[in-house]
Specification:
single chain; FAD/NAD(P)-binding domain; 2 domains; 5-stranded parallel sheet; 16% strand
Length: 558
């Protein structure tokens, strides 16, 4: 809106809850729209979200580093798959790059958010008794952020250290200890090999095995470092990787039993078992699942199977049922002596948050969902105006960071309507949500997600966490369905707000220390630059060879 050549935008205040990948993506998207009045609340003492909380030994990504980063912030990664410290370093780099530090309130917990219809604002209650008013709220706490603690009898009587992997004690020494680790998922697959290097004995309790694939993680070689220095090569490689994954993920093809891609992935996992345990048939049998590939989240690791074969590691193929003062009892009734008990028992996957969300007419989000989380594109829920969810229902799987970028742009476009005075309240139409849910559930029908015990489903058996296609499809939908599915309204109760500068005045930073000259836009030395770019792209693509998404499907039923 302009008057006499001046932008007459209002200031829309935005509360972002969570300072990890999701919250930072939302902040960058708002800033790129020229929206600067936002606060990022995080209860931790540092930015980073889950990558600050989860500092257990061995913590690392299972996605190529190049894809586990923002498209607008390429980075000179040190490893094919970054470890926790490097991911945290990257997130701090992005915060500095986009000058977000002043927007953070660390060590501050959001306890309750409530929509105030009388003033058209969200009331945000913070730790310490403080309350602030905001035009919009972004829930950026992530899907897997609340640890799941088992209700084992006798747990409180255990005499040694006992903790969840997400709450790993700093300075803990396990030297000479007998360590029991309950769990066999992605976190346990990283913890067990690391702990086995230090502890006298490691007991790994496995309730049910999952499919495991090799990661191929390693430090980058000199030529690979050079290739990562090209921002253009990173962007081209990123697109190549996304296209490969889009082909594999269309209608969840790779997760659909009976498809060629699903058969190829399962065959690769079985071959990995055979290579690793050709001389240990007992372990080969114990780690082979009885459900189709993708029924649980696949574990991607190079270290787990070798660790299982170590003399100081024992796989216990049974769940923990109770705990003693210095022991753990499994489902078969066997008692195991332990000095330390580590719970690698996962997280609550019901999209629960540590704060209560109250929408129109006093209805809470938990009541609205009634155990069946759902949101349009995973972002918006009817009855909760100007409330946006990052990494919400049915957006998990595939490539998370591209999803987060798309969600951030989506919510920023809505906040821009608040900022320009075109709306005071924005909700998604219930009919749009119903149609979206119907289509997604139909496309998820028949996938491996339905055929195993996992965190993907609600108590009714409905798949509530997983996305039904690839990241590129999701991004396209977030661009297509905005104002056409929104219901906007203005409120006469909205207080007047001050003017602000134009979006054009907000400078957009670019990533430092990366080479951009390998692009093809220049004339001088064009052929040489093109050859260099082709070399860099080929080098980066080669790093993706470990993923099932780039494998050719084997012969089999389609």
């Amino acid at each position: 809106m302009r008057a006499n050549g001046r932008d007459t935008r209002r200031k829309a205040r935005v509360a972002i809850i969570g300072g990890g990948f999701s919250g930072i993506a939302a902040a960058v998207a708002l800033k790129r729209k020229g929206i600067s009045d936002f606060t990022i609340y995080d209860r931790s003492d540092s930015v980073g979200g889950t990558w600050w909380d989860n500092h257990y030994p061995g913590a690392a990504v299972d996605t190529p580093s190049l894809l586990y980063s923002y498209s607008y912030a390429p980075y000179a990664w040190k490893r094919t798959h970054a470890r926790q410290a490097e991911v945290l370093e990257y997130l701090r780099h992005v915060v500095d790059l986009f000058e977000l530090n002043s927007h953070f309130e660390l060590g501050t917990e959001v306890e309750r958010v409530e929509w105030r219809e009388d003033i058209g604002r969200w009331s945000v209650e913070l730790s310490g008794g403080r309350t602030e008013l905001f035009n919009a709220v972004v829930s950026a706490t992530g899907l897997l952020n609340v640890p799941r603690y088992p209700a084992w009898p006798g747990l409180e009587d255990f005499g040694g250290p006992v903790f969840h992997t997400a709450r790993w004690p700093k300075g803990l020494s396990l030297a000479g200890k007998r360590v029991a680790i309950a769990g066999s998922g992605s976190t346990a697959a990283q913890v067990v090999p690391a702990v086995a290097e230090e502890a006298a004995q490691v007991l790994m309790f496995q309730r049910e095995p999952g499919w495991v694939l090799p990661k191929g993680a390693r430090d980058l070689a000199a030529d690979e470092h050079e290739a990562h220095a090209s921002a253009t090569a990173q962007r081209l490689t990123r697109w190549y990787m996304l296209v490969q994954r889009e082909r594999a993920s269309h209608r969840n093809n790779i997760w659909r039993p009976g498809s060629k891609r699903n058969a190829a992935a399962e065959q690769a996992a079985r071959a990995f078992i055979e290579r690793s345990f050709h001389d240990r048939p007992d372990l080969a049998k114990a780690v082979t699942p009885d459900f189709p590939f993708g029924g649980k989240r696949p574990v991607v690791t190079d270290e787990l199977y070798p660790a299982m074969a170590r003399p100081n590691v024992r796989l216990v193929p049974a769940a923990v049922t109770r705990v003693g003062a210095n022991s753990v009892v499994d489902a078969e009734g066997e008692t195991h002596t332990a000095d330390v008990l580590i719970m690698s028992t996962g997280f609550m996957a019901d999209f629960s948050t540590s704060f209560e969300t109250v929408g129109v007419n006093g209805k809470t989000l938990d009541d609205e969902w009634a155990g069946e989380p759902n949101a349009f594109l995973g972002i918006m829920v009817p009855g909760f105006p100007n409330y946006f969810i990052m990494y919400g229902p049915n957006t998990n799987g595939g490539q998370i960071v591209p999803h987060l970028e798309a969600q951030a742009k989506y919510l920023a476009s809505a906040v821009e309507l608040l900022e320009t005075g075109k709306a005071d309240a924005i909700e998604v139409r219930p009919a749009a949500l119903n149609i979206f849910n119907s289509i997604v559930q139909k496309r998820l029908s028949g996938t491996s997600f339905e055929r195993a015990n996992n965190y993907f489903k609600s108590s009714s058996g409905r798949v509530v966490t997983q996305w039904s296609d690839g990241a590129m499809t999701y991004v396209m939908l977030t661009k297509l369905f905005r104002r056409s599915v929104w219901r906007t309204r203005k409120s006469s109760a909205t207080p007047s707000t001050q003017l602000r500068s134009t979006a054009a005045e907000v400078a957009q930073p670019s990533a430092p220390s990366l080479r951009t000259g390998s692009g093809v836009s220049g004339v001088t030395g064009g052929l040489s630059k093109l050859r260099t770019l082709r070399r860099d792209v080929r080098t980066l693509i080669a790093l993706d060879s470990v993923t099932v998404f780039s494998q050719k499907p084997v012969d089999g039923p389609s």
